[in-house]
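User: Structure please.
Assistant: Input sequence and predicted structure:
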Amino acid sequence: MEGDDDGVGRQIKEEKEPLREKGAISSKHHAAAAVEADLLRAERIASVSHQLYSMSSLESARADLALLILYLNKAEARDKICRAIQYGSKFVSNGQPGPAQNVDKSTSLARKVFRLFKFVNDLHALISPPAKGTPLPLILLGKSKNALLSTFLFLDQIVWAGRTGIYKNKERAEFLSKIAFYCFLGSNTCTSIIEVAELQRLSKSMKKLEKELKHQELLKNEQYQMKLQKCNERRLALIKSSLDIVVAIGLLQLAPKKVTPRVTGAFGFASSLIACYQLLPAPAKSK
């Protein structure tokens, strides 16, 4: 009897062992299937996110191109880009004959076409009434700047006519070219003085607001932020006009030992880059 019981027990154990093995194998299959499903899901999510990213990057690229087109459509922007090329070539050539000097001369002549009848802008500003609250010395300086710049641009057209052969008197054209550069020097000197005076006025009004408001309130105050932005813009304009004064001195050869063609080219290139930056479209305000 005992032998029979042992045989039956062994048979039951032998039957259970394959079932356990089958259960383990099936659980492994389920786990593997679950992992495969997770991998497929992850791949789908990755592909969708990649498509969305590519679409967003494409839209941003289109927006950037639209801004570039808007920028390049401005005649003033194209003129300043050509100016950067002109003075960059002057820096490279250092007044010596060669390809860089040829680029400098040809670009200078091409730029004069962009400025045809541009003197009308400053002529209009000259006869326009000044802003209310502007002190009389600043008004006079502003009108002087407009008159000098308008004269420079007008004479520059005669210089262009002389260099293209339309105006035959070359000596007179060169003489008018020097007068034009003196007008350019004078207009930038006026601009520098105006910017210094306006920065002082802005500084006083900002200090009053700083006394009235706390530091945290200043960051949120629109009037203070506008004044701060104007202050930064005027500082940049002051730097540009100061650079252009050195450029005018170099072009007139008033200090040939110190302000060499290379120095003139470097300062002109820097002021051209600032001018290009100033013409960039204003960033959209976040609502």
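The radius of gyration is 37 Å.
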